[in-house]
TrEMBL record, chain A:
CDD domains linked: PTS_IIA_fru (cd00211)
Name of this protein: PTS sugar transporter subunit IIA
The UniProt record lists the keyword Cytoplasm: no
Pfam families xrefs: PTS_EIIA_2
Keywords for this protein: Sugar transport, Transport
Annotated PROSITE patterns: PTS_EIIA_TYPE_2
Top-level division of the source organism's lineage: Bacteria
From TrEMBL, chain B:
Organism: Latilactobacillus curvatus (Lactobacillus curvatus)
Gene Ontology MF terms: protein-N(PI)-phosphohistidine-sugar phosphotransferase activity
Protein name stated in the entry: PTS fructose transporter subunit IIB
Protein's GO biological process: phosphoenolpyruvate-dependent sugar phosphotransferase system
Keywords: Transferase
Entry-linked InterPro entries: PTS_EIIB-like_sf, PTS_EIIB_2/3
Pfam families: PTS_IIB (PF02302)
Keyword Transferase belongs to the record: yes
Length: 165, 100
């Protein structure tokens, strides 16, 4: 099912982040705290995000698209802990190890998170598909440049310009 | 009607994408398929009895041995035809073997 929110509603500059965290737990704590302060997630969000990632990892190996791309992860948890529908981009200044979503025994270093907040599994089930289409369709040189961006404003602007529903 | 059970950790995003992709592709291949998307933790042996094929994202420990064909559907999530095709082929093969 395709969702029909416009890009401007799926991304927000105030929930676009660059993190210096060096572990899953620290980056999750950092981002969850900011999301909680903005009243976008419940108090239980962090705990559930961490356990969800431990049991059902979300790392995606992008080398299958291009050997030059860094790997990403799409952390998320159940709708009941989320109060909005949006994608939270997080550039990681330091690589963090994630396990592979489609082969959980494998792990690799991840440099970018597209955290998915989804409070409506009926209407907004196409968000992951939209992320994958963005990664598949964006010209390689452009996407390489995107992963090198160093300000939350430029990351947000790139996504606003290139992300299609 | 073939019934498929798709599952992921949160029951949102991944399993819904698998449900949508399988329903669309199998319809294109001429099969009448309906899929449900659920959280892995909610799956029971009793629930599984109502389905013909189980498509988790990756190998999943349910605490019991599924009595229906299990096909890991994770590669579909990449939305790259060459990655998805082998999964679709496996599902089609399983449908044929059901002799429904």
């Amino acid at each position: 099912m395709q969702q029909d929110l416009s890009t401007s509603l799926l991304f927000h500059q105030e929930t676009t982040f660059i993190s210096d965290a060096t572990s899953q737990d620290t980056v999750f704590k950092e981002i969850a705290q900011k999301l909680y302060q903005q009243e976008l997630v419940t108090a239980d969000f962090l705990e559930n995000l961490i356990s969800r990632e431990a049991n059902y990892p979300t790392g995606l190996d992008l080398t299958v698209i291009s050997s030059h791309y860094p790997n990403i992860a799409i952390p998320h948890t159940e709708s009941e802990f989320v109060k909005t529908c949006r994608i939270v981009p997080v550039k990681l200044n330091h690589p963090i190890t994630f396990h592979n979503m489609i082969a959980p025994d494998a792990s690799f270093e991840v440099r970018f998170l597209f955290m998915i907040l989804n409070d409506d599994l009926g209407d907004q089930a196409g968000i992951l598909a939209n992320i994958m289409d963005f990664l598949n369709r964006t010209p390689k040189d452009d996407l390489m440049a995107f992963f090198q961006l160093e300000s939350t404003e430029s990351i947000y602007q790139f996504l606003a310009n290139h992300f299609q529903n | 009607m073939i019934k498929i059970l798709a599952a992921c950790g949160a029951g949102v995003n991944s399993s819904h994408q698998i449900k949508s992709a399988l329903e669309t592709e199998m319809a294109d291949r001429g099969y009448e398929v309906t899929a449900d998307a659920v959280m892995v933790k909610d799956i029971t042996e009793e629930m599984m009895q109502h389905y013909d094929i189980f498509t988790p994202i990756a190998a999943t420990d349910l605490g019991f041995e599924p009595s229906i064909p299990v096909i890991d559907a994770g590669p579909i999530l990449y939305r790259i035809p060459a990655m998805a095709a082998p999964v679709f082929d496996q599902v089609e093969e399983a449908i044929k073997n059901l002799n429904k």
